[in-house]
């Protein structure tokens, strides 16, 4: 499982969960309503939901080949959990989703985390497509994806129901990175990844 390793960038550490992550991540990200506005879940009401999520995706899944898993995104120096980067493998495709806490927005940290995670995911055997969807009104996420080199393939009508907007399904853009016929790929920019 070449993708499930700790990744270091200039300012971040993408890693498996550690003891004590849940309360900090809850305060920084999972429990913050504005951070879940464009997600298929509401903000976590208590830290136990965050702990369960971390136990499943950011710990036990790291040992299961081809299981959905996630990196905890933490600051490199303080090792403070500020978000997550989720990978959902499916045959030759990997769907990705990410988010960081509101007080860390506007610093390019989501792009920095994305470059590291995507470079690692391309090392997964047989990967030919990395993709995601983004609500048409989520301008910040769209900009992150463009900076990561993702290409917008079009609009998926009535694709996702987001609790923050009620029960009516919303339109989303679909973005992707793909490998060429001989396996070459481009993740856009310098990933600055250290293993």
Automatic annotation (TrEMBL):
SUPFAM superfamilies (alphabetical): Acyl-CoA N-acyltransferases (Nat) (SSF55729)
Superkingdom, natural source: Bacteria
PROSITE patterns assigned: GNAT
Domain N-acetyltransferase: 12-167
Xref: InterPro entries: Acyl_CoA_acyltransferase, GNAT_dom, Ribosomal_N-acetyltransferase
One Pfam match: Acetyltransf_3
Name of the protein in question: GNAT family N-acetyltransferase
